[in-house]
Specification:
The structure holds 2 protein chains of 2 kinds. Chain A is an all-beta fold. Chain A has no helices and 11 strands. Classes of the chains: A mainly beta, B mainly beta.
């Protein structure tokens, strides 16, 4: 299995809703990433998990809450979002081999619309 | 500041043409990704390279570390190659962060 899967593909939510995005990989990768991509812009890194521990938080607002329950699964919990949070949310994973350049594999993304 | 510049921003080609997309970066890196993104879609990793040249089918990627420059070539282009091509550089160690270029939007006409 050489792919990263994300669910749901599309999500529409109100500003008072609580929802979660899910990302899964079965490649044995120990680093997982969340990116946010606005239209016609490159992805922006949000969070990095290494060995199920949060290692990088790029000053993301607390209305986004990541969780890595095990080495294959990464969640992004959403609460009280704003319309400007509407974007494509991409998950990626990579190996964690020291001294090597670890290629990132991306999922298909979740298209989020906040009303 | 680590910047990644791509050129051209937009490219229109006729089917069958040879295509080159360029990427320049400003500081030392560990490796460089070439990524492909179709409209509304996820990102596919085409290549990751740190030196020399790689080839996969009709795609060729080269990198010159001394000149801080990489190129992506597509031979015998096809309408299905129409997509945004993104150059991303990896700095840091095994858990390096990617710095993305703004992408090149390629449209191949039949």
């Amino acid at each position: 299995d050489t792919e990263v899967t994300q669910t749901p593909k599309h999500l529409v939510m109100g500003m008072t809703n609580k929802k979660s995005l899910k990302c899964e990989q079965h490649m044995g990768h120990r680093a997982m990433y969340w990116y946010k991509q606005k239209a016609k812009k490159p992805p922006e890194l949000m969070f990095v998990y290494s060995y199920e521990k949060l290692s990088i938080n790029e000053s993301v607002p607390s209305r986004f809450s990541p969780e890595c329950p095990n080495s294959s699964l990464l969640n992004l919990h959403l609460h009280a979002l704003q319309p400007e949070d509407s974007a494509l949310y991409l998950c990626a994973s990579s190996r964690m081999l020291a001294g090597e350049y670890n290629e990132q594999f991306f999922g298909p993304g979740t298209r989020l619309t906040v009303l | 500041k680590n910047e990644v510049e791509q050129s051209p921003q937009n490219l229109t080609a006729q089917e069958g043409e040879f295509i080159t997309i360029n990427c320049s970066y400003s500081v030392g890196i560990s490796a460089l990704h070439w990524l492909q993104q179709h409209p509304g879609g996820g990102i596919v990793s085409l290549f990751m390279l740190s030196s020399g040249k790689k080839k996969h089918g009709r795609l060729i990627a080269t990198i010159n570390i001394q000149e801080k420059h990489s190129s992506l070539h597509i031979t015998a282009s096809h309408p299905r190659d129409s997509a945004v091509y993104i150059c991303a550089v990896l700095y840091g160690g095994s858990q390096g962060n990617l710095i993305f270029g703004k992408g090149t939007k390629l449209s191949v006409k039949p």
